[in-house]
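Hey, sorry to bother you again with one of my protein questions. I've been staring at a protein lately and its backbone has me curious. I owe you a coffee for this, so here goes:
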Amino acid sequence: MSTYETMSFHLETERLILRPWAESDAAEFCALLSERGNGTPTVDHTRTAIAKLLTATATTGIALLPIQRRDEGDFIGYCGLIIGRSTVEEPEIAYELFQRAYGRGYATEAAGAVLDAALATGRKRLWATVGTWNTPSFRVLEKLGFERDHVSTEDSGEVVWLTRSLP
């Protein structure tokens, strides 16, 4: 049994709402994943991915959450905590936005809310992993107080590991 509180699965900021996944998110999530340039997953495949995310949330008490803009009500990406390359005790913060939402501070705003939620669980440290090419993600993480720890090499290239102590 975890010694950590369950993460809040509904977070709000001035401009954003982060909430649990719904089956109705599948088409938009599918479109977001297709922006990676690796082809477009099917909506059925994406529904299965959402079900796996919900199962992982129930098991770990941490969540990757869809991001909606408060005024527009549209899905613009996701942000949250995952085990990823780390552990449930020191999870990774992860986020991805539609390209149309880049450059407006949404990733920083959403990730800031997730940092607060992580702190409320009792965790003491978070990780982030970023491809060396992803300069915008480095800017977001640096604004949030993450510091570079080390670099690893994976099949997809070099990955920078960053960490942040909480609070």
Summary: The first helix runs from residue 26 to 34. The radius of gyration is 15 Å. The beta strands are 11-12, 16-18, 64-69, 75-82, 92-97, 125-131, 147-154, 157-165. The chain has four helices and eight strands.
